[in-house]
UniProtKB/TrEMBL annotation:
It is found in: Cell inner membrane. Residues 25-112 form the Polysaccharide chain length determinant N-terminal domain. The lineage of its organism: Bacteria, Pseudomonadati, Bacteroidota, Sphingobacteriia, Sphingobacteriales. Belongs to the etk/wzc family. GO terms for molecular function: non-membrane spanning protein tyrosine kinase activity. Residues 582-710 form the AAA domain. This is non-specific protein-tyrosine kinase.
Length: 795
């Protein structure tokens, strides 16, 4: 046995001493005693993290940045904010926020999916899992409609000789020929073409088809558009992809589709204006041709070759008035056309612009109205008409329409007054022309009508050219300022984080096991378990021993466990204060009463004291068997047979010349009655006169009442508590006995202490000595090397 210097005075100082770091030191000591489990579990945690990283496809982030025209935020592309005057419950919002909502719509993502065939992906067949790839030696053509894909289908392509291909997955396997159409259930018609025979023949490839809606949903979940800086009109686009190049392609196409949609909105206004001008030009052209035909026929009928000077002067004067009148009528026609566009209040549509060039304010209203109508249509792509933002814009459209209607009415009244004024002047000139011959006057009327139609035609032709030129100059209000680029380092999985998580989980596993073992353990494991449930003093502590000998105390023994019995002997002298009869009991069998009684008897005998050990467990005696002595007459014989004398039942114990033994004798049917027999009291008095100490080994008090009956003869009761064996709830038994004055006084002895992991790990012993078995339980179980160390022990 190894020996250590022990301060026994400190060890058996039973006054309550609290240490702030006691729990921490005990916890650290326990961890250190099981260090190999933490190393092993930590290694397995790192190994699992390595396997996870080895077979997990990394995910990359692709970034791009757009600049949206927004005067309020310093946009560079020009143009007034479509929501500049928006107010109400939702507060002011910029066009940047609206563009973000448009970018997030599923319809825009669907356009990108169809353009890039994102519903089709390729992979390289692996031994553990399939690895996604950007290109393969095969081209997959979907001959059916894309919406015919009903469910996700994945097929591996295995080339066979002669251009035959084997397509297989977990559920099916079939063969087909290259460049030949074949049908796949829930997918449609497909055709596979070998486009590159230079690929490695050692690898097999496959493809996966998913429904378009599922592809759109997946990409929308991997896509984000955010305004990270509210002070500028930029939008940050992010897409997560397992293939960086493929992700860049998808994001580029997505931006192109968004720009096309943006340009389409601007072209709607120009196309509407051009359609209106074309319709008016066709009508004016027909009317002008008819007037010219009438003039030509008039001249032929009346044989007009030249008009007099007076007629020319009148015509010139009349022409001035008629030209102005034509302009007024043209403007009236344009105003009436605009009014017709504003009649539909349920379905707003864009209004042709630049039809009344002299009215700058009205043209500004038209531009404002068209912008709001287009913005409402764009918001409806991602929202419903019940959305507060859509309702707010609808209310603005209604207000602008009212302003335009009022402006149209005011403008029309002014034009009508101007027309009447011009008509009056024209009538005045016409009255002068009445002096001209009737034929010439008829010619003047036709010429005036021709000038009106010709002025209208020239005006509309100019506006058509201006609108057409403006349409070709249309540009998107969004500009790519940072093209899509993939990160060089994968976004997921994070290698350092996974390794750290694997290490933490590995180290946490033994901690969790320790916690669960302690949580589910109902037996005493530490001195804290005793202190928290007990108010009785602790007389001594006996460490665990792997030795098989029952008696570990001798004259020459200097082992720590022998010193513990000597320390307990010293403390016992202060407790009994001249008494000599000591009772040993416990809560249940197997807690080491006989073992402690034997060694304490030898320890007392070493002081040249005569010691008697009485085996009073009449139900299950064990001292005689532990000492290897033959069964003879004992206590039960003495009580039953009146002729027997004390000397006839006293025998040498064999462990020390000053230690005698009284066996239990024959097991009686009524042990409780024998213990309180008058001869028992006489025997105790006689023995007290002959011996310095009498040690009584009693049955467990938690099972029978024998110990309570024997307590009348005892000066002190030593109550055995065994680490890892005694139940925590059983500590109430000795406390209840003292509280009810059934047994008093009681001193606790903690038995079978297994100290691991430092001073504070259990009871304050840094060595592992004690006895191997004792009490009523002769079994012995050693902890294997692979078992988690704990404070639970068996004797």
């Amino acid at each position: 046995m190894s020996k250590r210097n022990i301060d026994w005075e400190d060890e058996f100082d039973f006054e309550e001493k609290k240490s702030d770091n006691k729990e921490i030191l005990r916890f650290i000591g326990r961890l250190l005693s099981n260090w190999y489990w933490f190393v092993l579990c930590g290694f397995f945690g790192l190994l699992l993290a390595f396997i996870y990283l080895r077979y997990t496809t990394p995910t990359y982030k692709i970034y791009a940045k757009l600049l949206v025209s927004d005067d309020k935020k310093g946009g560079m592309l020009g143009g007034e904010s479509a929501l500049a005057d928006l107010s109400g419950l939702m507060g002011a919002k910029s066009s940047v926020d609206n563009e973000v909502e448009i970018i997030k719509t599923a319809d825009l993502m669907r356009e990108m999916v169809l353009a890039e065939k994102a519903y089709l992906s390729f992979h390289k067949v692996g031994a553990v899992h399939n690895v996604p790839v950007l290109t393969t030696p095969y081209q997959i053509d979907l001959l059916s409609d894309v919406d015919s894909i009903g469910k996700s289908t994945s097929l591996n392509i295995i080339p066979i000789k002669g251009g035959t291909l084997e397509l297989s997955n977990r559920d099916t396997s079939f063969q087909t020929q290259q460049d030949m159409a074949f049908f796949v259930p829930d997918v449609g018609m497909l055709k596979i073409t070998l486009v590159d025979s230079t690929f490695s023949q050692e690898n097999n490839y496959g493809f996966t088809l998913v429904p378009v809606r599922k592809a759109v949903t997946g990409l929308r979940n991997a896509f984000s558009a955010d305004v990270t800086n509210k002070l500028v009109s930029t939008i940050d686009l992010t897409l997560e992809s397992k293939l960086p190049k493929r992700g860049e392609q998808l994001l580029n196409t997505f931006i192109e589709k968004y720009v096309e949609l943006n340009l389409h909105d601007k072209n709607v206004i120009a196309d509407s204006t051009l359609a209106f001008i074309n319709a008016r030009l066709k009508t004016i052209t027909d009317e002008l041709a008819g007037v010219e035909d009438r003039i030509s026929g008039y001249k032929k009928r009346n044989q007009l070759a030249d008009i007099s000077q007076q007629g020319r002067v009148l015509i010139e004067s009349s022409a001035d008035f008629t030209q102005k009148l034509a302009e007024v009528e043209t403007q009236l026609a344009a105003v009436d056309a605009v009014a017709s566009y504003l009649k539909d209040t349920q379905h707003p549509r864009v209004v042709p612009s630049a039809v009344i060039p002299q009215d700058v304010g009205f043209n500004a209203l038209i531009q404002r109205y068209n912008e709001l109508v287009l913005q409402r249509e764009r918001l409806l792509l991602a929202n419903t008409e019940d959305n507060p933002l859509v309702q707010n814009i609808t209310s603005q459209i209604a207000r602008v329409r009212q302003d335009m209607i009022a402006n149209v009415a005011s403008t029309r009244r002014q034009l009508v007054l101007a027309k009447q004024s011009q008509q009056e002047l024209a009538n005045s000139v016409s009255s002068q022309i009445t002096q001209v011959p009737t034929i010439e006057r008829g010619y003047i009327d036709l010429a005036r009508l021709q000038q009106i139609k010709q002025a209208q035609y020239i005006f509309l032709q100019e506006k058509w050219e201006e609108t057409a030129i403006g349409r070709t100059a249309n540009v998107s209000n969004s500009k790519v300022i940072d093209s899509p680029k993939a990160e060089t380092i994968p976004f997921s999985p994070k290698r350092k984080l996974i390794y750290a998580l694997g290490l933490v989980l590995g180290l946490s596993f033994p901690l969790a096991v320790f916690y669960l073992r302690d949580l589910l353990n109902v037996r005493i494991q530490s001195v804290d378990d005793i202190e928290s449930r007990n108010s009785l003093p602790i007389l001594g502590m006996i460490a665990h021993s792997e030795e098989q000998e029952q008696v570990v105390v001798s004259k020459t023994s200097r082992s720590p466990i022998a010193e513990q019995f000597r320390a307990m002997r010293t403390n016992l002298e202060f407790v009994i204060s001249g008494g000599k009869r000591i009772l040993f009991t416990s809560s249940m069998s197997g807690e080491g009463k006989s073992y402690v009684a034997l060694n304490l008897a030898v320890s007392l005998a070493l002081l040249d004291k005569k010691v008697l050990l009485m085996e009073l467990d009449l139900r299950k005696p064990s001292v005689t068997a532990k000492l290897g002595l033959p069964a003879g007459k004992g206590f039960s014989h003495y009580i039953v047979k009146n002729e027997l004398q004390p000397d006839e039942i006293i025998m040498p114990s064999g462990v020390h010349e000053l230690v005698d033994l009284i066996q239990a004798g024959a097991i009686p049917p009524n042990p409780a009655e024998l213990l309180i027999h008058p001869r028992a009291a006489e025997l105790m008095e006689a023995l007290s006169a002959r011996y310095d100490y009498i040690l009584m080994d009693a049955p467990p008090v938690g099972m029978v009442t024998d110990a309570q009956l024997l307590s009348r003869y005892a000066d002190c009761c030593l109550y055995l508590v065994r680490q890892g064996y005694t139940y925590k709830e059983q500590l109430r038994i000795p406390n209840d006995l003292v509280a009810s004055n059934k047994i008093k006084p009681i001193q606790l002895i903690i038995n079978d202490i297994k100290a691991k992991g430092g001073y504070y790990s259990n009871y304050g012993y840094g060595y592992g000595y004690g006895y191997g078995y004792g009490g009523y339980d002769d079994s012995k179980t050693k902890r294997k090397w692979w078992q988690l160390s704990s404070s639970r022990n068996k004797s």
